[in-house]
């Protein structure tokens, strides 16, 4: 009996190779040979992503606390409509900055992990500048709202 469909193992190698290439960057089961400082570098990368998580939690908590503090402050003093008007947008900005920081941390983790497997290390200058500037602007706006409400 002759088969109408023949299976050639060579035909599957190209799709498997493409699948393997696409999944190596985000593969959670990456195993590396511990030669030199490989383990130390990857453990440092994990500590860095945990610092991003901790920072994002602090920023999100700051946003929630800001809403609560400014809402309580404006409800105690009914004449302060300025604080009440800016409470939720400022708090939401803090939470969004926290989520943005978490996203940056996850992207940075996989970027560094992929770079370390090739023997490189990407520097995070732009990320630090962006988060620093946005946080500085948010702090200045909160301070400005609080000063404007006092006068």
From TrEMBL:
It comes from the Eukaryota. GO terms for cellular component: plasma membrane. It is found in: Cell membrane. The chain crosses the membrane at residues 90-111, 123-149. The keyword Cell membrane applies. This is DUF202 domain-containing protein. It comes from Neolentinus lepideus HHB14362 ss-1. Residues 40-114 form the DUF202 domain. PANTHER family: DUF202 DOMAIN-CONTAINING PROTEIN (PTHR34187:SF2), FGR18P (PTHR34187). It is a multi-pass membrane protein. Keywords: Cell membrane, Membrane, Transmembrane, Transmembrane helix. InterPro entries: DUF202, IM_YidH-like.
């Amino acid at each position: 009996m002759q088969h109408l469909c023949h299976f050639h193992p060579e035909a599957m190698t190209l799709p498997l190779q493409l699948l393997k290439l696409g999944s190596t960057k985000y593969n959670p089961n990456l195993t590396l040979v511990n030669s030199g400082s490989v383990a130390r570098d990857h453990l440092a990368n994990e500590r860095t992503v945990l610092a991003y998580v901790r920072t994002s939690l602090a920023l999100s908590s700051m946003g929630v606390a800001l809403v609560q503090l400014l809402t309580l402050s404006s409800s105690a003093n009914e004449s302060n409509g300025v604080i009440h008007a800016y409470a939720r947008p400022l708090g939401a900005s803090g939470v969004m900055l926290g989520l943005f920081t978490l996203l940056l941390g996850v992207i940075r983790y996989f970027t560094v992990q992929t770079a370390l497997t090739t023997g490189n290390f990407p520097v995070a200058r732009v990320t630090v500048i962006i988060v620093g500037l946005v946080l500085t602007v948010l702090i200045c706006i909160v301070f400005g709202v609080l000063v404007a409400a006092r006068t």
